[in-house]
């Protein structure tokens, strides 16, 4: 069980600059814009694109529960228009991902999570009802890679490890630039018994985000 910690220094730099460390300056322009938000601020930006979602039949049985708990959309759909708002918090280093999946003519499906830095490359993605995905952010082989590090219950400022890999599976994710204003992303969930049970992938534009603000977080020299 670990408690939340917060380094109050360097609030003017992007939140993810410390997470990527020395690799921050190696990120392509579209990734600098993607991760430009500063902590302790009201920074916000939006990317838009299209996604494909594929869900194994056994997992689709839990679609109503996932919607109730604010989880990922357990559907099969292609060419889905999606917007993602990235928002900082004025009172912390948390970084919000607020996704809207426009799956049909009805109300968009919302999947919101909150990225909480844990020191070094460690981050916990906190979802509704305090379930957290522990992840390590790396920039390797020209790609941002989110490496599975387990699950946690986020309670009263503590992150309590939960051995849920056997039940939920392991999450793998990566993002890569396809242009100065474009990136692709991919996420899947691999279950120890059923193999790949979930996948979503998409392409997003960062054209609406100014690069000069993002470059402001680059190291001098």
Describe the overall structure.
With 221 residues, the chain is mainly beta. Helix content is 14%, strand content 49%. It is built from 6 helices and 12 strands. It has helices at 15-20, 29-34, 57-60, 63-68, 165-168, 211-215, and strands at residues 2-3, 44-55, 77-88, 95-101, 109-119, 122-126, 131-140, 143-155, 158-162, 170-179, 182-191, 195-205. A 10-stranded antiparallel β-barrel has the order 2-3-4-5-6-7-8-10-11-12. The N and C termini lie far apart (39 Å).
Please outline the helices and strands.
Blueprint: E1 2-3, H1 15-20, H2 29-34, E2 44-55, H3 57-60, H4 63-68, E3 77-88, E4 95-101, E5 109-119, E6 122-126, E7 131-140, E8 143-155, E9 158-162, H5 165-168, E10 170-179, E11 182-191, E12 195-205, H6 211-215
Antiparallel strand pairs: 1-9, 2-3, 2-12, 3-4, 4-5, 5-6, 6-7, 7-8, 8-9, 8-10, 10-11, 11-12
Helix content: 10-25%
Q: What Rg is obtained from the alpha carbons, in whole angstroms?
A: 17 Å
Full CATH superfamily name: Calycin beta-barrel core domain
Shape summary:
globular
Specify the structural class: mainly beta
Q: What about the largest sheet?
A: 10 strands, antiparallel, barrel
The CATH class is identified as Mainly Beta
Extended strand count = 12
What fold name stands as the CATH topology? Lipocalin
Strand order, sheet with most strands: 2-3-4-5-6-7-8-10-11-12
Secondary-structure arrangement, i.e. CATH architecture: Beta Barrel
Strand content: over 45%
Helix-strand pattern, N to C?
EHHEHHEEEEEEEHEEEH
Our count of domains comes out at 1
The N- and C-terminal alpha carbons lie at a distance of 39 Å
Low-confidence runs of at least 5 consecutive residues:
216-221
Question: What integer is the average pLDDT?
Answer: 90
């Amino acid at each position: 069980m670990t408690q939340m910690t917060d380094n109050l220094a360097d609030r003017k730099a992007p939140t993810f600059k410390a997470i990527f460390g020395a690799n921050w300056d190696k990120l392509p322009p579209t990734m600098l814009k993607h991760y430009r938000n500063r902590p302790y601020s009201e920074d916000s930006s939006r990317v838009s694109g299209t996604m494909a979602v594929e869900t194994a039949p056994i997992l689709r049985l839990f679609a109503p529960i996932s919607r109730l708990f604010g989880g990922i959309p357990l559907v099969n759909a292609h060419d889905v228009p999606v917007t993602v708002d990235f928002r900082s918090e004025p009172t912390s280093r948390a970084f919000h991902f607020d996704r809207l999946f426009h799956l049909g003519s009805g109300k968009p499906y919302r999947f919101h999570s909150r990225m909480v830095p844990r020191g070094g490359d460690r981050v916990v993605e906190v979802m509704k009802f305090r379930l957290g995905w522990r992840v390590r952010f790396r920039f390797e082989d020209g790609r941002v890679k989110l490496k599975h590090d387990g699950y946690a219950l986020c309670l009263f400022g503590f992150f309590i490890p939960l051995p849920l890999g056997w039940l939920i599976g392991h999450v793998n994710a990566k993002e890569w630039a396809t242009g100065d204003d474009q990136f692709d992303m991919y996420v899947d969930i691999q279950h120890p018994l059923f193999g790949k049970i979930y996948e979503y992938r998409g392409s997003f534009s960062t054209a609406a985000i100014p690069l000069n603000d993002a470059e402001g977080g680059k190291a001098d020299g």
